[in-house]
Amino acid sequence: MQHEGRRIKSRHLVFVVRPNGLDAPRFGHTVSRKVGNAVVRNQVKRWLREAMRRTVEPSALPPVDVVIIARPAAAKAGFAVLFDEVSSVVAGLTESEGATAFRFGETA
């Protein structure tokens, strides 16, 4: 998955997006040991899950797989910053032109 699809990079996160051939979008996240110890990694994972929960309306998204990879700077960013980054990328996915561009791997 990470070698395919389109990469969208932000300051604290990397999003890998590719079509999944299903009827609904799927989401996942990765937080490596480079981000911090177990406590820090779990905090970042909780922030990402909450940001996705508040942002994503599955019926409004195209059928894509989205993997969110946390960069080491995500540990010090805080929830508000990560939420803004997640919501801006998800907004790009929900726009009709953006959804078509993501689906076919073109630049939006």
Provide the fold topology:
Layout: E1 6-9, E2 13-19, E3 26-30, H1 38-55, E4 64-70, H2 74-77, H3 79-94, H4 96-104
Helix pairs in contact: 1-3
Order of helices and strands: EEEHEHHH
Form type: globular
Low-confidence stretches: 96-108
Tally the beta strands. 4
Helical segment count: 4
Q: Averaged pLDDT, please? A: 85
Determine the fraction of residues in helical runs and give it as a percent range. Answer: 40-55%
Global structural class: alpha+beta
Radius of gyration: 13 Å
Strand content: 15-25%
**Alpha-carbon distance between the termini?**
21 Å
Give a short account of the largest sheet. Answer: 4 strands, mixed
For the largest sheet, list the strands in their spatial order.
1-2-4-3
